[in-house]
Each structure stands twice: as structure tokens, then as C-alpha cells.
Design a protein that fits this description.
Elements lengths: L11 H12 L2 E2 L11 H13 L12 H15 L9 E4 L1 H13 L5 E6 L3 H9 L3 E6 L1 E2 L12 E2 L2 H7 L4 E7 L11 H13 L3 E5 L25 E6 H4 L8 E4 L2 H14 L5 H10 L4 H24 L3 E3 L6 E5 L8 H12 L1 E2 L1 E2 L7 H4 L2 E5 L4 H11 L4
Helix pairs in contact: 2-10, 3-10, 4-5, 4-9, 11-14
The structure holds 4'-deoxy-4'-aminopyridoxal-5'-phosphate (PMP) and glutamine.
The site of 4'-deoxy-4'-aminopyridoxal-5'-phosphate has 13 residues, from helix 4.
Length: 392
């Protein structure tokens, strides 16, 4: 293994899912739903295979039906218009979109600002591109207990501004944010936009959890902020929105020259992906608003169930405004090392979780935080909550 990748080892998700299997624990680690997405969408995939649509290499940028559906979805939700032919690219999941974007846009030695804790593939892909990551840490807001901002992980805009150097090429944003559940506000996004324009930076924004926002919160795409349409690469995924993480259908929307750049890298990573699933996702994106509202409501109820259970078990809970993860602080349990805690949790309670420290360069900042996924059946979450009571 080369020096660029040596520090990364095996992803925490594979490690923790294997631990769950080995110990027969409830897996609230890796974020994947334990119920598949809509029947009609599954049927669409079967029909595509049977009718011979996409069984051979689909077009490099993605099948036209899907590119059109992605553009229409962005217009329907956010009023953003993208040309399906020149401004949309289908990828093998958001993971490939992240990799191809970074590999296409970075020069060795460039700096990339990423919000810490960050999704694990960001660091590895920045390294593969020979660039340097510059983390800006989100920290829990200490405001009045019970207040709306209390416990929200916040982005310090002064720190963000101070992190920009002459070598900064781009900012890698993620909202709704995995693992903290923070949904960036319009004011925060406007500040990022202003900084990007002022310092002439590109922004890659990972918005795979765009539909998972709660309590009436609004997901605001960065591309809709003033000045950002031309300098933003937006990443989406069918895995999260339609509960088909195994299909690996993702996408990029951006200005034509940026999409062309990302396509140049993408063609040599996978060339193309998931022919029949692309047709099925095209249908999924056209589901009525009621589907998306239902997805939100269902996950909000699950968030509340798991958050209450974790609080009752003695964790400090950071109530997520978005995503299907809840971050906790284990210090009230008399613990301080999330790694040790997560390795012992199967034995102690029959549950698997993720130590947030893996998403930090400043490991000490992340040490006491542990993430639980709530994209699981209600009965499974109830059983997990019962088991976790053993910790209290
Ligand atoms: N970005 C974030 C923030 C994620 O949480 C994930 C997956 N959990 C991905 C990207 C990868 O998405 P995909 O499965 O579509 O590759
Ligand atoms: N994104 C999922 C998570 O954060 C896992 C995806 C993966 O295993 N790479 O849990």
C-alpha cells in the first residue's frame, strides 16, 4: 500500500458491521436502512433488467432518462435549473462522485477545507489526489440548555475564514451533516458563499441527506446561494433518499465545465455504473411529494425514539436536525474514549455504534462522541433502547 493510503486502513463501517455480525449485535453503526425502498421502484428495476434497458454499458454521463429526472427533481424542489446534457453526471454512488470530483479538480499540494468530523472517504480521496486536508471543526453549541441552538454542532465562520490560504483550492461541504446531524442555515451557507466568491474557491457540497431534515427545517442547496451556481459541485445519492444503498446510483450537478472535468476522472474510475438501476432511480425521483414527506416523518419519529432511549440510558444526546444519525457524548456515562466504548458495546449491551473520532484529524476533539444510526425498523430501535438501558 502506498504512503498516500497507508494511514487509512479498513473503513470503520466494514469493521463495525463485521463486529455486529460476529457478536449478533444490533447494528446501529453503518448507515443503511434495514427495509428496502418503495415496491414500485424495485419493480422498475426488475422491468428494466427484463426489458433489456441498461444491461449493456449505458452512456458515460448516465442514461438520458435519469439525467432529465435529476434536473427535474432539482427544479421541483429548489427552483434550480440544470441542463441534463451538460450539467448532470450520473456516478457509482455519491462515493464515486466525491472521488471523481476531487481527483478531477485538485493539483498535488492544493489544500481542501473540510468540516470536521468528516465522512471518511473525503480524507482518503483528498490524499489520493495528492492534496492536503485542512479540517475546520464543528463544535457543540453551549447555549442555554433547552434552547434551540443548545447541543447543535456549529461551524465557526471565523475559523473557516482563517483556514483559507493561498493554496486553498476548494471547500468540501456536507449538509445535512454526517455524523453530527447539523443542517447548515441560510446565514451559514451565505457566509460560505461569500468566502468562496471572495477567495475564488470552488465548493463541493455533499447533499446526500437532502430529504432527511426534521422539525420543518429546510435543506438549502448551496448552489442556490448568491454567486454559487457557477462554482458549486453538488452531490446527491439515491441510496439515502430511496433506501437502496446497494444500488450505488449517485450524481453530480454543476456548471458544464465542472461536470466535464468530473466526467474526465469518472470515465477512468468506473466508466459507467448500474444500467438498469439508473432507469429505476429515474422513476423514483418522480415520486410524488407525499413520498418524500413520508420518508421525513418516518425518520423523525425514529430519531425521537432513539434519542429518548439514549438519553434515558445516560448519554448526552445531540438532537440531529437532519440525516439518519444521532451523535452522543459518552462522558455522562463515566466514559471518555469512544473507540474503547464502541469495541466494548456489543459485549455490554449487544449494540454496535461508530466512534466519531474516526472522522477527526484532531482525534482528541472527537474522542467522547459516538454515533448511532436510526434508519432501522421501529421494533429494532425499541430493542436497542431496551438493551442500552443496561448501561445506565
Ligand atoms: N456522503 C455521505 C455524507 C454519506 O454519509 C455517504 C454514505 N453513507 C456517502 C456520501 C456515500 O453515498 P453512496 O452510498 O451513494 O456512495
Ligand atoms: N455513509 C454510511 C455511514 O456513514 C456508510 C457508507 C459506507 O459504508 N461507506 O454510515
Amino acid at each position: 500500500l502506498n504512503r498516500r493510503l497507508a494511514e487509512f486502513g479498513t473503513t470503520i463501517f466494514a469493521e463495525m458491521s463485521a463486529l455486529a455480525q460476529r457478536t449478533g449485535s444490533i447494528n446501529l453503526g453503518q448507515g443503511f436502512p434495514d427495509t428496502d425502498g418503495p415496491e414500485a421502484v424495485r419493480e422498475a428495476a426488475v422491468r428494466a433488467v427484463r426489458d433489456g434497458r441498461g444491461n449493456q454499458y449505458p452512456p458515460g454521463p448516465g442514461v438520458p432518462e435519469l439525467r432529465t429526472a435529476i434536473a427535474e427533481h432539482q427544479r421541483r424542489l429548489y427552483g434550480l435549473t440544470f441542463d441534463p446534457d451538460r450539467e448532470v453526471l450520473v456516478t457509482a454512488g455519491a462515493t464515486e462522485a466525491i472521488a471523481a470530483s476531487l481527483l478531477a479538480l485538485l493539483e498535488p499540494g492544493d489544500e481542501v477545507i473540510a468540516l470536521e468530523p468528516y465522512y471518511d472517504s473525503y480524507a482518503a480521496c483528498i490524499a489520493m489526489a495528492g492534496a492536503t486536508r485542512v479540517p475546520v471543526t464543528l463544535r457543540p453549541h453551549e447555549g442555554p440548555r433547552g434552547g434551540a441552538a443548545h447541543g447543535r454542532f456549529v461551524l465557526d465562520l471565523d475559523e473557516l475564514r482563517a483556514a483559507v490560504t493561498p493554496r486553498t483550492r476548494l471547500i468540501l461541504l456536507n449538509t445535512p451533516h454526517n455524523p453530527t446531524g447539523t443542517v447548515l442555515t441560510r446565514a451559514e451557507l451565505a457566509a460560505v458563499a461569500e468566502l468562496a466568491c471572495e477567495r475564488d474557491l470552488l465548493v463541493i457540497t455533499d447533499e446526500v441527506y437532502e430529504h432527511l431534515v426534521f422539525d420543518g427545517a429546510e435543506h438549502i442547496p448551496l448552489a442556490s446561494c448568491p454567486g454559487m451556481r457557477e462554482r458549486t459541485i453538488t452531490i446527491g445519492s439515491a441510496g439515502k433518499t430511496f433506501s437502496f444503498t446497494g444500488w450505488k446510483v449517485g450524481w453530480v450537478t454543476a456548471a458544464p465545465e465542472l461536470v466535464a472535468a468530473v466526467r474526465s476522472a469518472k470515465q477512468f474510475l468506473t466508466y459507467v455504473a448500474s444500467g438498469p438501476f439508473q432507469y429505476a432511480v429515474a422513476e423514483a425521483l418522480r415520486l410524488p411529494d407525499s413520498y418524500f414527506a413520508g420518508l421525513r416523518a418516518e425518520h423523525q419519529a425514529k430519531r425521537d425514539l432513539l434519542s429518548a432511549g439514549l438519553a434515558a440510558a445516560g448519554f448526552e444526546v445531540f438532537r440531529p436536525a437532519g440525516t439518519y444519525f444521532v451523535t452522543t457524548d459518552i462522558r455522562p456515562l463515566g466514559e471518555s474514549d469512544g473507540f474503547a466504548f464502541c469495541r466494548a458495546l456489543p459485549e455490554r449491551a449487544g449494540v454496535v455504534a461508530i466512534p466519531n473520532a474516526v472522522f477527526y484529524d484532531h482525534r482528541e476533539e472527537g474522542a467522547p462522541f459516538v454515533r448511532f444510526a436510526f434508519c432501522k425498523q421501529t421494533a429494532v430501535l425499541e430493542e436497542a433502547v431496551t438493551r442500552l438501558k443496561a448501561l445506565a
